[in-house]
């Protein structure tokens, strides 16, 4: 479909070996010339006007410098393109050599293009410096442009001041960003045989990129970002789980601390108040107890006094009773003894008679006197002895030992013996001794004076009186007579004495009897007395016994009472002791209170468990409470230390999550809470891991979605290029083929995420964590590797393009490389169609300006394909130009190149041949 | 501009040229999934690489399924034997998996571990012993496959790489030939084809 607007003609003046060339561009053209004439050069000239950007100019084997010299040999070398535009009608885009260094300059003006206008009056071509002036003379307002300005102008970019919008815009693109791609594809249309699969893919991607958000997914970064928190949380979870017992202990201690704080806070004012009240209480109570004690002691003393009185009375009564008993006993005894005596007179008579008898005897005795009988007896025995001695002396008076010795020994010696031997021995008769005078003399001579020596025994006789003195017969007989007279007297005396004793005895007996009777009489009187007092006595005894019993009872009671008193006193004493002890203790604690630390002043600001104990403190509880309080204080400090330590231990065990809590207390609370919710945390962690998967896959989903969009776009594109049959191909399409390993990995992750989201695969994730799934991990690693190799994943990395072709009755075959897909001609066509379709896609469809498409070496195509191609090109908004050594009859124009004698090429309007079906011409 | 200096300029922009050349020259395949970085480099500069390798007399081939290799028309006898044995290895593996009802196209996901190899060996003992291969021979053959870029060892098992597609293609081709001509045994044809590796 030819357009009203579009390229009209290309004119070369003094360029590329052409003196002048005029080429129609409004319809298909068959440019005809032998090889190596200048067909390709002619068409390449358009690059300066359409590609503009020096970097993209492509002259095949000729480098760009050489091409510049070739195209702009002088400052009057021109490449001119006439285009009809919907906005500004005919415009001329031109490029003129500057001569100097073969540079060139762009210019443009509103056409039409008239070659004569470039010719000076002298017939020469106008040079670049005079160009604008020259054109002005023809009423053309031309301007020079830099290549950038020119490019922007042609592709509808920025405008120069004073220009109407899009005055010279040839190519209006759907999207400004496509300008580059468009130019590149356009470049290729000049050399479509070089269009490669890679380029097709690149351009297609570029073309469709406006449908695809420009997203590059750095999968590793996405993954790390999404899972960083999960991993951190998992670390915290693990460390909490490993340290559960420690946290439990922490919790217990913290609860204890809170409770203790609550207690301390509640008790502190109570205790302050209690301590104040205590002093008073102590004094009062102490006095009170002292008073009680004194009173009790007084009472006890009274009791004791009473008791003593009673005891005294008791013994008195006992004595009384004893006396009474004795009397009674006496009465009974006397009654027994005097049972036979009825009258007192009986006894009185007996007594009177006995006294009379006694008195008679006493009178008898008063006559008798002298010695008593024993003494007489003794004298008798002594006188008898004397008599016997005297008789013996009488017998031995003539011959006795003394006399014998007196004859034999000296008087001295005799004196010794007379002092040494007794009288009887010295008067022994001769038959009773044997004397050996010699021996005796000898013995006596050996003896010292006044010594009487016996063998083994020496006796002093110095002070001994002489035992014997020799008396006369007469003397002796007188002595014997004296002795006999004394003996007779003594015997008479003795007899008289014996008579007197008997009398005395009888008197005594009578005396006895008197006494006994007197006593009996006395006793009788006593008995009478006793009998008389008996009833009174019995009564008195009864009374005494009664009183005693009473006393005993009273004493017993007093004992109990006393015990009670004693106990009471002890009790009071105990109370006092306890009070004192309490006071001492309270005072001790008061002096050394455990709550003097600073922290106790702002304890109420710290977390604590309110104490629900009794809000009043009775004084009797003070000491105990104080003790408890004191212990609480110390324990609180101890707990502070321990909790601090525990916290540090937990940190080093990895539980650092709450380290930045506003206070250690808060941290502990959070740790404990965390530990209590470990099960929930595990679930949350799993949930987080899942949502991380979801997050990660969100970007993958975008990528996947973009791939889908691209595929849809490709589908459209294939429809576009399949509208017309290409060669003998039944099927020709460009098919995106997934890079399976990547797309599958992405799909796996997306599916997993979907399952995670819908909760379908709960069991799967319950079994093994999301993160541990082997397949997932493989997919993840794959995407990470690929992503890092490509600095992020793009849609383009997910597929490759294959060319699918099929002839009639044959299976579809796919090719990575379009060049190998079919015969040269077919491939050429395929490329051309593809290229045109791409350009078409880029153009603004609302504004059709027909451009040019060039096919070199066009003879490779048969006529049918040529026609088909011309039509297709026209549909896409391009006039097709074939270059070949011989004419193609399928084209509208046939333009041969004239070779001049000067070696220059020449094409003039005059040589244009228009080919038309005969019918049309005839008609 | 001379060709040499042109190549020098190109080569200076290809830091991995020497590495890739050694890689391919050892007969090793480059797989996109196992060597994403090298692959990306190769892909990005494909034209340059092809130009240089071609100039050096090597035919770099790139399969759209994600692998590349130096195509050789004449293999050394050593390579011959190796390729023949590898063909046998992949054949028995694929056969075993097919018997187990496992879809062959997903071969990249298989875990080829000792267990699988044992099963493979048991099921194809006769065939393997004819090639003088025992179980350990099978294992060392897997290592050979690894060296040629047909497999990689990862996590205690081998994973087949896309390059194995070359063998798969070949089996398919043989299968279609067998369809056409019942008498042709695939083993007999194999030599001609495998020279290309
Ligand atoms: N860009 C250029 N720079 C310098 N010389 C060039 C350039 N383009 C073409 N030439 C020269 O112009 C002459 C014509 O070549 P061109 O390629 O235009 O011939 P052709 O008619 O297309 O031939 P063929 O039918 O063989 O393609 C050649 O001598 C060529 O060297
Ligand atoms: Mg040519």
SSE diagram, text form:
The complex is a heterodimer of chains A (923) and B (197).
Chain A: E1 6-15, E2 18-24, E3 29-32, H1 39-44, H2 46-50, H3 64-71, E4 78-85, E5 89-97, E6 104-110, H4 131-137, E7 143-145, H5 147-154, H6 179-190, H7 197-208, H8 219-242, H9 244-337, H10 344-367, H11 373-395, H12 401-408, H13 411-420, H14 423-426, H15 437-446, E8 451-454, E9 457-460, H16 473-591, H17 622-652, H18 664-676, H19 678-721, E10 729-738, H20 740-758, H21 762-767, H22 774-789, E11 799-807, E12 813-815, H23 824-842, E13 851-855, H24 863-875, E14 878-884, E15 893-896, E16 898-899, E17 905-907, E18 913-914, H25 918-922
Helix pairs in contact in A: 6-23, 7-23, 8-19, 9-16, 9-17, 9-18, 10-16, 11-16, 16-17, 19-20, 20-22, 23-24
Chain B: H1 3-12, H2 17-25, E1 30-31, H3 36-44, H4 46-55, E2 59-63, E3 67-71, H5 77-99, H6 114-123, H7 125-130, H8 135-147, E4 151-154, E5 157-160, H9 165-180, H10 186-194
Antiparallel strand pairs in B: 1-3, 2-3, 4-5
The structure holds adenosine-5'-triphosphate and magnesium ion.
The site of magnesium ion has 4 residues of chain A, from helix 1.
């Amino acid at each position: 479909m030819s357009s009203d607007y579009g390229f009209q003609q290309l004119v070369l003046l003094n360029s590329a070996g052409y003196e002048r060339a005029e080429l129609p561009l409004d319809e298909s053209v068959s440019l005809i010339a032998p090889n190596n004439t200048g067909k390709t050069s002619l068409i390449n000239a358009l690059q300066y006007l359409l590609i503009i950007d020096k970097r993209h100019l492509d002259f095949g084997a000729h480098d760009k410098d050489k091409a510049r010299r070739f195209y702009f040999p002088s400052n009057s070398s021109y490449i001119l393109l006439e285009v009809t535009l919907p906005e500004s009608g005919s415009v001329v885009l031109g490029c003129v050599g500057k001569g100097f260094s073969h540079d060139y300059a762009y210019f443009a003006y509103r056409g039409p293009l008239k070659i004569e206008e470039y010719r000076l009056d002298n017939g020469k071509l106008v040079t670049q410096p005079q160009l604008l002036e020259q054109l002005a003379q023809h009423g053309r307002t031309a301007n020079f442009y830099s290549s950038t300005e020119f490019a922007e102008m042609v592709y509808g970019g920025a405008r120069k001041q004073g220009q109407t919008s899009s005055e010279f815009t040839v190519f209006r693109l759907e999207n400004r960003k496509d300008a580059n791609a468009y130019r590149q594809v356009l470049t290729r249309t000049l050399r479509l045989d070089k269009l490669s699969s890679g380029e097709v893919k690149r351009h297609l991607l570029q073309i469709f990129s406006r449908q695809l958000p420009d997203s590059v997914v750095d999968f590793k970064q996405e993954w790390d970002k999404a899972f960083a928190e999960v991993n951190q949380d998992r670390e915290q979870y693990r460390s909490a789980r490993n340290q559960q017992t420690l946290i439990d202990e922490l919790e217990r201690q913290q609860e204890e601390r809170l409770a203790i704080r609550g207690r301390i806070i509640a008790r502190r004012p109570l205790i302050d108040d209690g301590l104040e009240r205590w002093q008073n209480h102590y004094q009062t109570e102490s006095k009170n107890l002292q008073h009680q004690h004194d009173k009790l002691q007084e009472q006890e003393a009274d009791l004791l006094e009473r008791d003593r009185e009673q005891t005294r009375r008791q013994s008195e009564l006992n004595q009384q009773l004893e006396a009474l008993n004795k009397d009674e006993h006496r009465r009974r005894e006397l009654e027994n003894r005097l049972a036979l005596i009825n009258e007192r007179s009986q006894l009185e008579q007996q007594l009177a008679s006995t006294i009379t008898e006694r008195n008679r005897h006493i009178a008898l005795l008063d006559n008798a006197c002298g010695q008593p009988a024993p003494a007489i007896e003794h004298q008798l025995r002594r006188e008898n002895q004397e008599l016997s001695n005297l008789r013996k002396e009488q017998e031995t008076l003539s011959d006795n030992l003394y006399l014998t010795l007196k004859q034999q020994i000296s008087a001295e010696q005799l004196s010794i013996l007379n002092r040494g031997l007794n009288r009887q021995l010295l008067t022994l008769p001769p038959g009773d001794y044997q004397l050996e005078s010699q021996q005796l003399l000898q013995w006596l001579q050996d003896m010292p004076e006044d010594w009487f020596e016996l063998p083994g025994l020496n006796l002093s006789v110095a002070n001994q009186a002489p035992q014997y003195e020799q008396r006369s017969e007469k003397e002796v007989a007188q002595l014997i007579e004296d002795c006999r007279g004394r003996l007779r007297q003594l015997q008479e005396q003795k007899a008289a004495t014996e008579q007197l004793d008997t009398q005395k005895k009888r008197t005594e007996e009578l005396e006895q009897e008197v006494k006994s009777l007197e006593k009996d009489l006395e006793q009788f009187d006593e008995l009478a007395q006793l009998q008389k007092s008996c009833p009174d006595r019995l009564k008195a005894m009864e009374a005494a016994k009664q009183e005693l019993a009473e006393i005993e009872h009273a004493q017993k009671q007093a004992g109990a009472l006393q015990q009670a008193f004693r106990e009471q006193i002890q009790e009071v004493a105990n109370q006092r002791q306890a009070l004192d002890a309490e006071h001492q203790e309270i005072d001790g604690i008061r002096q050394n209170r455990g709550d003097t630390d600073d922290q106790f002043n702002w304890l109420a600001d710290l977390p604590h468990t309110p104490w629900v104990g009794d809000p009043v403190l009775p004084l009797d509880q003070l000491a105990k409470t104080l003790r408890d309080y004191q212990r609480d204080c110390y324990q609180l400090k101890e707990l502070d230390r321990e909790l601090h330590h525990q916290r540090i231990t937990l940190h080093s065990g990895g539980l650092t999550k709450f380290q930045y809590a506003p206070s250690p207390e808060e941290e502990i609370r959070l740790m404990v809470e965390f530990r209590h919710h470990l099960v929930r945390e595990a679930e949350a962690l799993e949930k987080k891991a899942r949502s991380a998967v979801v997050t990660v896959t969100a970007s993958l989903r975008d990528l996947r979605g973009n791939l889908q969009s691209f595929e849809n776009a490709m589908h459209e594109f294939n429809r576009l290029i399949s509208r017309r049959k290409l060669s003998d191909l039944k099927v020709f399409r460009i098919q995106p083929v997934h890079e399976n390993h990547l797309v599958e990995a992405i799909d796996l992750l997306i599916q997993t995420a979907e399952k995670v989201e819908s909760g379908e695969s709960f069991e799967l994730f319950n079994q093994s964590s999301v993160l541990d799934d082997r397949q997932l991990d493989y997919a993840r690693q794959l995407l990470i590797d690929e992503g890092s190799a490509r600095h992020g994943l793009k849609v383009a990395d997910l597929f490759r393009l294959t060319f699918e072709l099929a002839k009639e009755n044959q299976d579809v075959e796919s090719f990575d490389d379009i060049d190998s897909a079919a015969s040269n001609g077919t491939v050429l066509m395929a490329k051309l169609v593809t290229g045109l379709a791409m350009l078409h896609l880029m153009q603004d469809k609302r504004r059709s300006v027909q451009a040019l498409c060039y096919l070199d070496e066009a003879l490779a195509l048969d006529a049918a394909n040529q026609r088909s191609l011309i039509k297709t090109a026209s549909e896409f908004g391009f006039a097709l130009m074939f270059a070949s050594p011989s004419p193609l009859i399928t084209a509208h124009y046939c333009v041969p190149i004239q070779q001049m004698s000067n070696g220059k090429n020449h094409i003039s309007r005059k040589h244009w041949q228009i080919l038309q079906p005969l019918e049309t011409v005839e008609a | 501009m001379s060709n040499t200096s042109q190549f020098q300029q190109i080569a200076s922009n290809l830091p991995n040229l020497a590495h890739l050349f050694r890689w391919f020259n050892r007969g090793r395949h480059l797989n996109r999934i196992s060597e994403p970085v090298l692959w990306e480099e190769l892909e990005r500069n494909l034209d340059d690489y092809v130009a240089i390798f071609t100039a050096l007399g090597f035919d770099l081939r790139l399969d759209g399924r994600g692998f590349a290799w130096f195509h050789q028309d004449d293999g050394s006898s050593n390579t011959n034997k190796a390729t023949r044995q590898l063909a046998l290895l992949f054949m028995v593996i694929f056969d075993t998996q097919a018997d187990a009802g496992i879809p062959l196209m997903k071969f990249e996901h298989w875990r080829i571990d000792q267990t699988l190899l044992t099963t493979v060996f048991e099921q194809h003992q006769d065939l393997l012993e004819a090639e003088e291969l025992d179980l350990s021979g099978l294992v060392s053959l897997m290592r050979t496959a690894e060296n040629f870029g047909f497999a990689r060892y990862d996590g205690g098992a081998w994973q087949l790489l896309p390059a194995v597609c070359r063998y798969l293609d070949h089996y398919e081709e043989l299968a279609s030939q067998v369809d056409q001509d019942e008498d042709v045994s695939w083993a007999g044809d194999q030599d001609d084809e495998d020279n290309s590796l």
